[in-house]
Design a protein that fits this description.
This protein is an alpha+beta fold and 642 residues long. The chain has helices spanning 2-6, 9-23, 39-60, 66-77, 85-98, 101-112, 260-288, 309-344, 351-379, 381-385, 391-400, 408-427, 460-486, 491-524, 528-548, 550-554, 561-578, 582-587, 593-596, 607-616, 627-641; strands at 118-121, 137-141, 146-150, 158-159, 170-179, 182-192, 205-209, 222-226, 229-232, 242-243, 249-250. The protein is globular and about 90 Å long. It starts with a helix and ends with a helix. Bound molecules: ligand LFHR5U4W and flavin-adenine dinucleotide (FAD). Residues 460-638 form the Acyl-CoA oxidase C-terminal domain. Belongs to the acyl-CoA oxidase family.
Length: 642
């Protein structure tokens, strides 16, 4: 099963080897539990480990393999980030995709050797979503052949970029490029922020940390201002766009090609979210098979809480989602790598499809991951609320994904633009022009669903039902939009009035893609036992998901009330079938105890003893009487007693 999850036997074996090596290297372990550290201590601890990794990484992993890097990162540095997180996740990808060959030769080897640390500085205090209204300017000075970076007012301060505040000395900065008083829109520039020797901010730069956040507190998200700060013309990233010495602008082959670093993260973060969901579920499911509370049959001893159907219903559909996200994420990464290769050689024809797909997936996956992790926390009762479970930290980190790389509603609306264009093709009889991901929009469906009507139909009737609801909602939302425009509404006003319906269409389309990716994967599996276990999980997935969106299929009679009862029964049936495999389905992800960082989710199940040990190690327990007591509470009580 690990081979299915991680993509191959080899990958699963490599993960095990890497975990085993790390287990033998105490210098790479947390020196104490992260929840007991202050933010400064955590940052220090993480930087300490990063420097060891820089020395020893080659002995542990193949540093050119992103999957191995990611595993190393999760084991050693953990989910809460590290001082170079953005360096690997956005700075290097931005340079790789957007810098010319000459620029890459100058900067990439230095970045890869970690001579410099970089980040991606785009969002500002006043604007994150609406890139067209960013306020930082890069004005070309023809006389000196330099760009002058400037922050005209407080809302133009860069705000949020990870590791910008304290760790990075370089950044890819996105600013509006102005040449001879003409604004060419946001463009990426390579900018040195700090002196390479002293690490002091360079003159003209204001920089710092934005303060503690809901999670990710090892990352120094920062602010950055420029006061007429000059950089050479050749620091504009010029793979696709060029500015000649005389100020001539050569436009890129696609207007949004400079957004590729964002698409990179959107594509890669899906499996990251799957891992976080599976981690939280692993903790909750292991604990649920240790925790005994109450009886189902009063004549029997107390049961493991995992025996309760409500507990299974809380956890198992999310187990199915974690697998589904991992499979859909793997497909998306493949597609992204393909499109990136094509883009580099000038073919930009697939960018719109990739953008639509990653926008929808990013939104649905992060939202459902958040839901699943929060349910996992609640499923652990009181101990889930303790930082000893570590689930709240996983939740805080995962939920950040709903906001970064494009706020979820906004990204769903991006996919909706693509769906509406596709709907227009269907309406004008040009269904043959639909791309493969939306081809179903042009296919006439049956009048009613055949779920439970055709024996042994596998998942086909389920997929058709998802297609039907997605198609119907897309056409309905598009009709609403076109109808308003026909009545004379301006395009943007009409769009806003339909946006809730449009986003519903985007979610349904994305959920269909996730179901299809799961079905595709299960169909490919040769090993009978693995196929059986995953087929059970897929049964739970399609029935649970369909029940969740049933109103869309009920309202036009595509599903009947009796079919809905059948679907509900299937959910209960598969909860029971999955129960014996539940812990194994999560243990198959092979997270080590080092990586999980959870007292509740320990592999050996020795929860109570270790919870007590953990509590005793709290800094508050170093002394029996705290100074808050001697200084305030004790005098208060004494005064009251007088
Ligand atoms: C040991 C050490 C270890 C280190 C690490 C190891 C690394 C291993 C690698 C593994 C990676 C794992 C990943 C895990 C991730 C976790 C890390 C978390 C870090 C978080 C970092 C966060 C960073 C950020 O948030 S950066 C800032 C992101 N900002 C946004 O996303 C802004 C959102 N807004 C937008 O994208 C745009 O403004 C948008 C799209 C809303 C509108 O843009 P616009 O320019 O205004 O567009 P408009 O004129 O309206 O035109 C729309 C038009 O354009 C099309 N379009 C838009 N975008 C694209 C695109 N990208 N591609 C193609 N087409 C695009 C759109 O479709 C419209 O088309 P039409 O409909 O045809 O008009
Ligand atoms: C943990 C974290 C890490 C980050 N790292 C980085 C980084 O490394 N580099 C970087 O540059 N940035 C980074 N960011 C910033 C992040 O990319 C932005 O916060 C994000 O893109 C959302 O933009 P915003 O803050 O402007 O939200 P807003 O756009 O102000 O969103 C507020 C509300 O308005 C709604 N809204 C906005 N526009 C529309 C619209 N057109 N239609 C409908 N609704 C709309 C949204 O849906 C939301 O409900 C990070 C953020 C976080 C939380």
């Amino acid at each position: 099963m690990a081979a299915q999850i991680w993509g191959s036997e080899k990958r699963a074996r490599r993960r095990r080897e890497i975990s085993a090596k790390i287990a033998q290297m105490p210098e790479l372990h947390d020196s104490k539990p992260l929840p007991f550290m202050t933010r400064e201590e955590k940052i220090m601890e993480s930087a300490r480990k990063l420097t060891i990794l820089t020395e020893k990484m080659g002995q542990i992993i193949d540093p050119t393999d992103p999957a191995e890097l990611y595993h190393l990162n999760n084991e050693v540095l953990g989910l809460e980030g590290n001082p170079m997180a953005l360096h690997g996740v956005m700075f290097i990808p931005a340079l790789s995709a957007q810098a010319s060959d000459e620029q890459q030769a100058k900067w990439l080897p230095r970045a890869l050797r970690r001579e410099i640390i970089g980040t991606y500085a785009q969002t500002e205090l006043g604007h994150g979503t609406n890139l067209q209204n960013l306020e930082t300017t890069a004005t070309y000075d023809l006389a000196t052949q330099e760009f002058v970076l400037h922050t005209p007012q407080i809302t133009a301060l860069k705000w949020w970029p990870g590791n910008l505040g304290k760790s990075s000395n370089y950044a890819v900065v996105v600013a509006h490029m102005i040449i001879k008083a003409k604004n060419y829109g946001p463009h990426p520039f390579m900018v040195q922020l700090r002196d390479e020797k002293t690490h002091e901010p360079l003159p003209g730069i204001t920089i710092g940390d934005i303060g503690p956040k809901m999670a990710y507190n090892i990352v120094d998200n920062g602010f950055l201002g420029f006061n007429k700060y000059r950089i050479p013309r050749t620091n504009l990233l010029m793979r696709h766009t060029k500015v000649e010495a005389d100020g001539t602008y050569i436009k890129p082959p696609h207007a949004k090609i400079n957004y590729s670093a964002m698409v990179h993260v959107r594509a890669y973060m899906l499996t990251g979210q799957a891992i976080m969901l599976a981690s939280a579920l692993n903790i909750a499911t292991r604990y649920s098979s240790v925790r005994r509370q109450g009886q189902i049959d009063k004549s029997q001893p107390e049961v493991k809480v995992l025996e309760y159907q409500t507990q299974q219903h809380r956890l198992f559909p999310s187990i199915a989602r974690a697998y589904a996200f991992q499979f859909a994420g793997a497909e998306t990464v493949k597609l992204y790598e393909h499109v990136l290769k094509e883009m580099k050689s000038g073919n930009v024809s697939l960018m719109a499809d990739l953008h639509a797909l990653t926008s929808g997936l990013k939104s649905v996956v992060t939202y459902q991951t958040g839901e699943g992790i929060e349910q996992a926390r609640m499923a652990c009762g009181g101990h889930g609320y303790s930082m000893a479970s570590y689930i709240s930290e996983i939740y805080g980190v995962a939920i950040g994904g709903c906001t970064y790389e494009g706020e979820n509603m906004v990204m769903l609306l991006q996919l909706a633009r693509y769906l509406v264009k596709s709907a227009a093709l269907v309406k004008s009889g040009q269904s043959s022009k639909l791309g493969p991901l939306v081809a179903y929009l042009g296919v006439k469906s049956e009048p009613t669903s055949l779920i439970d009507r055709i024996p042994n139909s596998g998942f086909t009737e389920y997929v058709k039902t998802f297609q039907h609801v997605s198609k119907r909602q897309t056409l309905k939302a598009a009709d609403m939009f076109f109808g308003l425009m026909e009545k004379g509404e301006k395009r943007e006003i009409a769009w806003n009035k339909c946006s809730v319906e449009l986003n519903r269409a985007s979610r349904l389309h994305t959920r269909l893609f996730i179901v299809e990716a799961f079905v595709r994967r299960v169909n490919e599996i040769a090993d009978i036992r693995i196929k059986e276990a995953l087929t059970d999980l897929l049964h739970l997935h399609v029935n649970y998901e369909l029940l969740d969106i049933a109103s869309y299929a009920l309202e036009d009679g595509f599903l009947s009330a009796s079919q809905l009862d059948y679907i509900r029964d299937q959910v209960y049936l598969y909860l029971g079938k999955i129960r014996p495999n539940a812990v194994s389905l999560l243990d198959s992800w092979e997270f080590s105890d080092i990586e999980l960082r959870s007292v509740l989710g320990r592999r050996d199940g020795n929860v109570y003893e270790n919870l007590f040990k953990w509590a005793k190690s709290s800094p508050l327990n170093k002394t029996d009487v705290l100074s808050s007591v001697t200084q305030y509470l004790k005098p208060m009580m004494e005064k009251a007693r007088l």
